[in-house]
Design a protein that fits this description.
Elements: E1 9-13, H1 15-24, H2 31-41, E2 45-49, H3 59-68, E3 73-77, H4 81-90, E4 94-97, H5 117-129, E5 133-138, H6 142-150, E6 155-159, H7 161-168, H8 172-191, E7 195-199, H9 207-211, E8 218-221, H10 223-232, H11 234-249
Parallel strand pairs: 1-2, 1-8, 2-3, 3-4, 4-5, 5-6, 6-7
Helix pairs in contact: 2-11, 4-5, 7-8, 10-11
The chain binds pyridoxine-5'-phosphate (PXP).
Length: about 250
């Protein structure tokens, strides 16, 4: 059973620093520089999603991050043979398995674990054996959580996109229902011994209710922090998120 005493961890996702770099096809802004600023601003980990189409983070970014971070690297990736080989080469602290569709703008839903249990169990076993903490990105759904537990994942990352969208669009009853579901499923996952992380679409307005769940150990946030950095700088955007998370936990 995970011990959840201690400071809530903030994982900073730097994918969209690479999005901005790739818009011009050059070298800047550099994701590694962003990661260093994030570390100094209080990030407890750096998350990067190596997509099959390399639309933001590229192989060289993963190489640079794996070689020089002083905080843990969480590599997000699809369950493909290519990605498994990359993860086994770098052995990041954590690997988060996400669903991936070429045509989507971002990771739209959680992984369908229950219907792909056998394949996923075999897929994650070598990652676990290599010492990576394997996390599965899923909807806050009991069936999916049970399946993630059966395949021996260490962590479930619960998709907060529906909660955040409902909040941003002013559908408050729906937002509250999504939040209640996240709360209930966080407790359920924790009761099975899984470590619980929420993530996707979180911002200064939506982070605190999740941060207050006692079972939550880490929160992964990217797009909002990088967007806010345009106005206040990356250091300040991360420090403010950290402050809000700590206040919610106090
Ligand atoms: N967690 C997972 C598994 C994700 O796929 C993403 C988006 O890449 C995030 C967290 C971060 O989401 P956002 O960039 O919206 O904060």
């Amino acid at each position: 059973m995970t011990d959840f005493v201690g400071r809530l961890r903030l994982g900073v996702n730097i994918d969209h620093v690479a999005t901005l770099r790739n818009a011009r096809g050059g070298m800047v802004p550099e994701p590694l520089r962003a990661a260093r600023i994030a570390e100094a601003a209080g990030a407890d980990g750096i998350t990067a999603h190596l997509r099959e189409d390399r639309r933001h983070i590229g192989d060289a970014d993963i190489e640079a991050l794996a070689a020089s971070l002083s905080v843990p690297l969480n590599l997000e990736m699809a369950a493909t043979a290519e990605m498994q080989a990359i993860a086994l080469r770098h052995r990041p602290h954590a690997v988060c398995i996400v669903p991936e569709k070429r045509e989507e703008r971002t990771t739209e839903g959680g992984l369908e674990v229950a219907q792909d249990e056998n394949r996923l169990a075999h897929f994650i076993a070598p990652l676990r054996d290599a010492g990576c903490r394997v996390s599965i990105f899923i909807a806050a759904d009991q069936r999916q959580i049970e399946a993630a537990h059966r395949i021996c994942a260490a962590v479930v990352e619960l998709h907060t996109g529906a909660y955040c969208d409902a909040h941003d669009e002013g559908r408050l009853a729906e937002r509250d229902a999504e939040l209640a579901r996240l709360r209930e499923m966080s407790a359920f996952a924790h009761s099975l011994g899984l470590e619980v992380h929420p993530g996707h679409g979180l911002n200064y307005d939506t982070v605190q209710p999740d941060a207050a769940f006692p079972e939550i150990v880490e929160i992964n946030i990217g797009h909002y922090l990088v967007g806010e950095a345009i106005f206040v700088g990356l250091d300040a955007s991360i420090r403010e998120m950290r402050r809000l998370m700590d206040a919610a936990r106090a």
